[in-house]
Structure formats: structure tokens, C-alpha cells
Amino acid sequence: MKIIDEFTDLPVSRQRKKQLRYQRDNRCMICGQPREAEATNKVLCVRHTTAFNQQQRARAGFQPWQPGKAGRPRHDQQKAVA
Fold it and tell me: What is the DSSP string of 44-77?
């Protein structure tokens, strides 16, 4: 059975069409799980957003924030510190 929608005739791969459908339906583009309304990332669930951030941090060579050190605390720790 073929899905007929606004992505059917796009000249992109099947996987990209699936990602676009997930994005339209407010689902994670990687695993398809529903995204939370308060999520900071518009295309990924919390699990994959965290994994992506860790990969980017490792690639750039950054260290995680530590209390008492220079730098800005993580978003969830800002409320606890303030």
C-alpha cells in the first residue's frame, strides 16, 4: 500500500520522506517516538537530543560544566543554582 500525501511526489529518498512525515506529526525523526511539548529540539526526542549534544561536545572537545568552574550551567541546573 502506497502512502499518498504532500511528500509522495518529492524527489527524495524513502527515508527522508519518512523523516518529514515524523516531523509533521511531532515525532522524533530518528526513532518515531512522540516528542514532548516542552522539548527544546524541534525534531528529536529527549533521548536523541541528549545523544546528539554529547556527540557534538565530544567532537568539539568540550568538557561538561562543573559547579564552581567558569562557564554557564546547563539549563536544568540554572534554576537550582539561582
Answer: S-HHHHHHHHHHHHHHHTPPPP-TTSSSPPPHHH
